[in-house]
Amino acid sequence: MPKSKASLKARYASDKVGVVGTVAVDAGDFRLLASATDTTFVGGPSLNGLSLSVEKPGSFVIDYDVPKQDVLFQFMNTVRVLDKPLNLIYTHDKGVNQTALNGTLVLDPANKLSANYMFDSGDCKLKYTYMHRAKSTFEPSYDIAQNSWDFTVSQRLSDEDILRASYQTSSRVLGLEWSRNSMLNGTLKISASVNLAEKQKEPKFCAESSWNFDM
């Protein structure tokens, strides 16, 4: 008998409130998903915010945005380079005609190199990930098109709690995020960000919580 799971995610931001619900059904090697947002039910049932997906974990994902009639294809594969695994993800968004290739070379459990290339614009981003003693993670990334650096540092406070800080040099946005997993079979995330380039420098806050259910 196929296994079904459902999830509900609620997000409150300074400028927007949103809810997303997802139902996933395992059908052998494949997984069928349907997701809807709060706009699907405002003013009566509609197709707004509704998307349907079929995926084979580790191989491909086909996502169909019903109201926009937009299809997104994503293919995954892993190859060996100098006896190191290189994880590749090829993504094509038919609606906006965008194609991207993302590759992550796993040097060892503590070190990874990643690259993301956009075929339409030629933009390329590089990222290096270093994990120290499975608790601290450092992720500098470089945007070749904008000639700018981004920095992310995260610290695992406990088995459930992670604190993350980030800074984007191009936009001068400083961010701080705290997340907790496995809370009531779900997650809780609270974040704040401030644009240091603005005169007011008013922080923006966001709270996000999700719950998972077996059906």
Automatic annotation (TrEMBL):
Q: Which protein, by its recorded name, is this?
A: Uncharacterized protein
